[in-house]
Amino acid sequence: AQSVTQPDIHITVSEGASLELRCNYSYGATPYLFWYVQSPGQGLQLLLKYFSGDTLVQGIKGFEAEFKRSQSSFNLRKPSVHWSDAAEYFCAVGAGGTSYGKLTFGQGTILTVHP
Amino acid sequence: DTEVTQTPKHLVMGMTNKKSLKCEQHMGHRAMYWYKQKAKKPPELMFVYSYEKLSINESVPSRFSPECPNSSLLNLHLHALQPEDSALYLCASSQDRSGIYEQYFGPGTRLTVT
Prior knowledge:
The complex is a heterodimer of chains A (115) and B (114).
Chain A: E1 3-5, E2 10-14, E3 19-21, E4 24-26, E5 32-38, E6 44-50, E7 56-58, E8 64-68, E9 73-78, E10 87-94, E11 103-105, E12 109-114
Parallel strand pairs in A: 2-12
Antiparallel strand pairs in A: 1-4, 3-9, 5-6, 5-10, 7-8, 8-9, 10-11, 10-12
Chain B: E1 4-7, E2 10-13, E3 18-25, E4 31-37, E5 44-50, E6 53-57, E7 64-70, E8 73-79, E9 87-94, E10 104-105, E11 109-113
Parallel strand pairs in B: 2-11
Antiparallel strand pairs in B: 1-3, 3-8, 4-5, 4-9, 5-6, 7-8, 9-10, 9-11
């Protein structure tokens, strides 16, 4: 069964600083990987996804993520954080086989941005 | 338009009530999902519908009853719920169930069971 680990429960950065959120996954085959963002009491918005090809993926709102198969990681980065980026971020892996359609989420990382 | 709509936004119900949550998408997606999200936790999959047929039931108690009347609509019927069922219920859709397609989420229904 697939699993996702987000080691950092809470990260605080200053506005304008760079950001890296960590994600490690466990999956037997080539993973389908996603990063979602959720503002309090809201639904999830897709930031970016990786299926195959170029291991550096660009997303919305200036985010990017790099897939590293050797490290089973899919870390999310942003060069300069804005106050509006404060939210909770979820990494997820999509399953294949009989569990097609099942997304397994990490526990989430809460991002606080200081002015 | 990549919008999934959910109604109502908030719902308060007693343990003996029957209520329904509604989800709608007009993106032509053929897979639809129900998730439950407790505070400070990630979403947990409840049900997956593919081409209007139930494909995955994650051992959800029978007091939750999903229904997919057509390819655009997904309902979740609620009956005899418990206070621990209070949560944010999220609906999502994707082009199909293959896993390669991203899921688009609605804003959720905040359910409180009293």
